[in-house]
Design a protein that fits this description.
Radius of gyration: 21 Å
Shape: elongated
Number of helices: 11
Order of helices and strands: HHHEHHEHEHEHEHEHEH
Strand order of the largest sheet: 3-2-4-5-6
Structural class: alpha/beta
Helix content: 25-40%
Number of strands: 7
Distance between the termini: 18 Å
């Protein structure tokens, strides 16, 4: 892939973007760990006619670092309607993950430990911080897993809060809720979801499918489809796809998982709902807001 020249005016625009977003400008360190250099590298690969849109999308990009996670969780928690919290005898907080691991019929007795999910990371941040500052903190418990509350949970008195860092299309959350609701103790009256960031399409899908409310600090719309109409919408979608094609991004990720058009990276990892032009990388092409480390 041939990189395109960057004009001085474009560099000034990128520097201003980084200053406005409070992103670190590190020109003299290894490209593998310099956000600024990774961004420049990605920008150079984009056709000149598509660069304006890339900058516009970058201005909307939400980057949450690890040091910000707990404070954003706290702000999200404070959005919960007290009609849920006040009457609850116990408030259980668990990660938004499948309650049980389903083994294949051919599985042996030993299984590989599954990778830690983002919701489990959020629960860890809650545990290591002084969460007693939260409303009704005296009622809060953070059990190790769903099995620890499955039998003791009181449907008419307790509340289950399922936490995650990001709600995208809502598909995964709906599948998890379906598994949880297999136990008739749990229903939309005693289960809610709490997320740092949520896509509007996701929380709408969760409510339409399971009648469960989602609380959050940041609510995000589709970054192109919800902000443009008519010919301008078609033009910007085409430019986004043009950028993907320039970088040989697989079509399955086009506009983000399930066309979510998200612009977010949390704890140094982008969800697949984010536009892949920001996170897709290969052994020879680094990404500014990676999902997986492929570039060595």
């Amino acid at each position: 892939m041939i990189k395109k020249q960057i004009e001085p005016a474009e560099l000034i625009q990128i520097d201003q973007l980084f200053q406005d977003k409070n992103w670190e400008i590190e020109e003299d360190i290894d490209i593998r760990i310099s956000l600024y250099q990774k961004f420049i590298d990605r920008y150079e690969r984009i056709k000149k006619e598509d660069r304006e849109l890339f900058i516009k999308l970058s201005k909307k990009f939400l980057r949450i670092t690890e040091k910000e996670v707990y404070s954003i969780f706290r702000d999200s928690y404070n959005q919960i309607d007290e009609d849920y919290l006040k009457p609850a005898e116990n408030i259980f907080i668990l990660p938004l993950v499948e309650p049980y691991i389903k083994l294949k019929k051919t599985a042996t007795e030993k299984i590989s430990r599954p990778k830690i999910k983002s919701g489990e990371k959020i629960k860890l941040f809650i545990e290591i911080n002084e969460y007693r500052e939260l409303k009704f903190s005296e009622k809060i418990s953070l059990p190790d897993n769903f099995a620890m509350i499955e039998k003791s949970f009181k449907p008419k008195k307790d509340l289950l809060i399922l936490v995650d860092d990001f709600i995208g299309s809502g598909r995964t959350a709906n599948e998890i809720l379906k598994s949880i609701f297999d136990n008739k103790k749990f229903d939309p009256d005693n289960v809610i979801i709490l997320s740092l960031v949520a896509q509007e399409i996701g929380i709408n899908s969760i409510y339409e499918t399971n009648k469960v409310f989602t609380f959050y600090k940041y609510l995000k719309k589709k970054a192109i489809s919800d902000f443009y109409e008519g010919d301008k919408l078609k033009e910007n979608i085409a430019k986004s796809i043009s950028m993907e094609e320039t970088m040989n991004i697989p079509e399955q990720w086009s506009l983000g998982y399930e066309k979510s058009e998200a612009l977010v990276s949390i704890m140094n990892k982008s969800p697949n709902n984010t536009f892949p032009i920001f996170w897709y990388e290969t052994k020879k092409m680094i990404a500014p807001f990676k999902r997986y480390v492929n570039f060595k």
